[in-house]
Design a protein that fits this description.
With about 450 residues, this protein is α/β, with parallel strands linked by helices. Helix content is about 30%, strand content about 15%. Helix 12 runs antiparallel to helix 14.
């Protein structure tokens, strides 16, 4: 199922050629689903007007049929596979810098949703293991091992070996990440009904399901039987339904368990599917900082969805009302990993005033304010909910006798949702040890 060509303006390779006429250049889009390359990169990859689109991607072309340099989803791999490999030292330095930054935002644990090679981003598996061996991994990390849609169940032994290599440490790879669709902004998010084109007419495109539903159910059932948690990427309402159906098939085959499968992003969820999260025990993994009126959402995404689907957009309140268990995160580097900013948006459906990527409408006009969460529920989703999703809830996520001292001190009263955007982290501790100190006194 091929996504339609986009009518909106995208950059062209000629703009990159002005600055880099000879050296191949590859730039990742902020969404993690798009790349922009110059003519030299296209030539090195052998991409011409005759090159067909890959099965799960799109080579954008201009009015003459020539590639524009914008490569969507798996089309980006055609160039990404030619990128030079970063050195071990570079990977190590980058991960330590990322860990320091996340600790400064009060983050003590995270799930890395792509532990594998993806669109030019290197596999972090060995770096996590090396830092842990050297005593430098201060966070608790749950790795989601990347599922390659082209390898099928043949990759299961590799995943089992990787999981076995991480048992008992701060880095544990007991999850498998399945990317079931793309994103709505480039029409690769899998929708039940077509995207809308100019004038609000159906375009004929309903996006991409990277795995056919029957295959997705078979894979999920096999992973479930082997004790893997499954982390689905599900953006469009069809992808969300396909993921829920896959978990339902696993439940029918294997029975109930405590693996805590989850669907991340949930940009559009059909009302009929919202109660299924609770009935199937599927966690709604939300990225709340997205639920605001950014210019891209208003200018591109909402027109593609249309008025009838807009009320289904990031339905946090409706999912909570239907009994879904919520966990929250950021999908960094797509957007800021700052939990306090995300909590502001979850409770206000507007952007924090200091966010440099938000325009005035995003800061002042709520996006579907009826889908706001109250402060207690939002805080729980970012603490105990996230701990539950990562199988860390027996020891973290709450302040209680017998729990590990993974603690964060902030300078505002977080029972008041109006304080979220102004609050700053002063101190972060993991296991009682200081990993970030903004006061300089510890």
């Amino acid at each position: 199922m091929v996504p339609r060509r986009l009518s909106r303006q995208h950059p062209h390779r000629r703009e990159l050629d002005r600055f880099l006429p000879e050296r191949p250049a590859y730039l990742n889009g902020h969404d993690g689903h798009t790349a922009w390359v110059n003519s030299a990169a296209l030539a090195k990859a052998g991409i011409t007007r005759e090159t067909p689109d890959p099965p799960h991607g799109l080579i954008e072309r201009d009015e003459t049929g020539e590639p524009t340099g914008v490569l969507i989803e798996d089309a980006a791999t055609l160039v990404a596979e030619l990128l030079p490999e970063p050195s071990v030292a570079e990977l190590r330095s980058g991960m330590l810098a990322a860990q320091r930054y996340l600790h400064s935002l009060g983050i003590t644990a995270w799930q890395d949703a792509i532990v594998g090679d993806y669109l030019g981003m290197p596999d972090p598996f060995d770096t996590y293991l090396a830092l842990e061996a050297d005593g430098l991994l201060t966070a608790r990390v749950r790795g989601a091992l990347w599922w390659s849609v082209d390898r099928g169940l043949d990759q299961l032994p590799d995943l089992l070996a990787r999981r076995a290599a991480t048992v008992g440490g701060r880095f544990h790879a007991g999850t498998v990440k399945i990317m079931q669709d793309g994103i709505c902004e480039n029409c690769t998010g899998a929708m039940l009904t077509p995207y809308l084109g100019p004038g609000g007419t159906p375009s004929g495109g309903t996006g991409l399901s990277f795995l056919e539903p029957a295959e997705l159910a078979e894979i999920t059932t096999a992973l479930d039987a082997h004790g893997f948690q499954v982390h689905f990427h599900g953006v469009g309402d069809r992808a969300v339904r396909e993921c829920l159906d896959a978990v339902e098939a696993a439940r029918a085959a294997n029975g109930d368990n405590d693996l805590r499968h989850q669907i991340a992003h949930l940009d559009v969820v059909d009302p009929a599917d919202r109660p299924r999260f609770a009935s199937l025990g599927v966690i709604a993994n939300l990225q709340p900082l997205w639920a605001r009126r950014d210019s891209e959402i208003e200018a591109t995404k909402l027109p593609l969805l249309g008025a009838s689907r807009e009320p289904h957009h990031f339905p946090f309140g409706s999912l909570a009302g239907a009994g879904a268990r919520l966990a929250m995160g950021s999908d960094w580097p797509v957007t800021s990993p700052d939990p306090l900013w995300a909590l502001h948006t979850a409770t206000h459906r507007t952007a924090p005033r200091d966010d440099p990527h938000a325009g005035e409408r995003a800061r002042t006009v709520p996006l579907l304010p009826e889908q706001r969460l109250d402060a207690d529920l939002a805080l729980a989703a970012y603490t105990s909910g996230a701990a539950f999703a990562n199988h860390l809830d027996a020891e973290t996520g709450r302040i209680a006798v017998g729990m590990l001292a993974d603690l964060v001190v902030v300078d505002q009263d977080l029972t008041d949702p109006d304080k979220f955007e102004h609050a700053r982290v002063r101190l972060t501790l993991v296991d009682g040890s200081v990993v970030h100190d903004a006061t300089g006194q510890v």
